[in-house]
Write a structure and sequence with these properties.
5-stranded parallel β-sheet; 13 helices; 367 residues; alpha/beta
């Protein structure tokens, strides 16, 4: 079997994670990359992820079996003219953008429909850049493919197999289906989270009381407000129609809730929370989806010097990496005084086993 060659135009968080996942499962895979951030390219080369770097979008990419557009959405469209000049007729062209209809329109306009399969790995992080990329980011994440009608079934099947080699789960949709669904489960929630955070900011007292006592529930539903403003600005400007449709529906639902509150309709309010709870509890508890699961464990510890350091040391000695650790001052919805975040589910399980064996009382994350 011939060595697979994959090109990356843009090597940030997602592009870097895909490249690392490919190298992990196929060490012989040849990776060519271009990015305006030369430090990221140098790091990728030093890590053995990238084999060849390009100073621009040139014929370095003409031997690629797959060419991935991993720059910001607006730049991907701009890069298409340069891509068309060097693209091999047998190469599959794809992207990783969060909005698909826009890039499909550009692909049609430039005449590349027969080679394009849109892609969107439903994975991400509040952190950005190649330095934060990792192969496990794609592990068991849905990877949506939006092939054009002109792409052959064989090419789609080949790309689905490649996605599986990355450790992800391929799901094939039309670009219209993708954009409406992600507007509901990803794009609108980011807008709501940002609006809610700004509401608290504008409503808070001068001494910052609301910020100080913000409970776990508030931080959970607003965590995604920490995402890149540049990226979400572009998403809102390219998936506007779908977001507006769902935003109107959401505003209407809020107006109904306001009426129920005004009239003190106990049955309607109960139904609101009961229906939401039932549907929310039916969600698959897996790290797939656009709003990533947080891997956290809560631990009861004594309020004494060295207590936190003892736990951190205990886990470090067992080579368990901690993403974040801190004392919970408001435990309205949480058990345990110490909250520890990890990078993956296996680390949570291992940490729980280690700490329990040492006599610590642990609690799983509820949400």
């Amino acid at each position: 079997m011939a060595t697979l060659t994959c090109g990356f135009i843009g090597l940030g968080l997602i592009g870097g994670s895909i490249a690392k996942a490919l190298k992990s499962s196929m060490p012989d895979c040849k990776i060519i990359a271009y990015d305006i951030n030369t430090e990221a390219l140098e790091l990728a080369v030093s890590e053995g992820i990238v084999d060849i770097t390009a100073e621009e979008i040139d014929h370095s990419f003409s031997t690629c079996d797959y060419l991935l557009l991993c720059a910001p959405v607006s730049h991907n469209a701009e890069n298409l003219h340069a891509v068309k000049k060097i693209l091999s007729p047998t190469c599959i062209l794809t992207d990783v953008g969060s909005v698909k209809s826009d890039i499909h329109e550009h692909i049609t306009a430039i005449g590349l429909d027969s080679q394009f399969i849109g892609g969107h790995p439903m994975a991400g992080s509040e952190r950005t850049g190649y330095i934060n990329s990792k192969a496990l980011l794609l592990e068991n994440a849905y990877y949506i493919l939006t092939p054009t009608e002109e792409v052959s079934a064989d090419k789609v099947a080949a790309y689905q197999n490649l996605v599986r080699r990355m450790g992800a789960i391929p799901v094939t949709l039309s670009c219209e289906q993708h954009d409406y669904a992600t507007a509901a489960v990803s794009h609108l929630p980011h807008i709501i989270a940002a609006a809610l955070v700004n509401l608290v900011h504008d409503s808070d007292s001068q001494d910052g009381l609301m910020k100080m006592i913000a409970a776990g529930g508030f931080k959970d539903i607003t965590r995604i407000a920490s995402s890149s403003p540049d990226m979400w600005q572009q998403i809102c400007l390219t998936n506007t129609e779908n977001i507006l449709t769902l935003l109107d529906a959401y505003v209407y639902s809020l107006e109904r809730i306001r009426e129920d509150l005004t009239s003190h309709s106990s049955s309607a309010l109960y139904t609101l929370f009961q229906d939401a709870r039932t549907y929310r509890d039916s969600f698959i508890n897996a790290p797939s989806g656009p709003i990533k699961r947080v891997y956290a464990l809560y631990v009861d510890i004594a309020d004494e010097p060295g207590a936190l350091a003892a736990i951190a040391t205990l886990l470090a000695l067992r080579a368990i990496s901690i993403q974040n650790i801190g004392i919970i001052h408001n435990r309205e919805y949480e058990d345990g005084v110490l909250r520890i975040e990890f990078y993956d589910e296996s680390s949570v399980s291992s940490a729980k086993e280690i700490l329990s064996a040492k006599g610590y009382q642990t609690h799983d994350q509820k949400f």
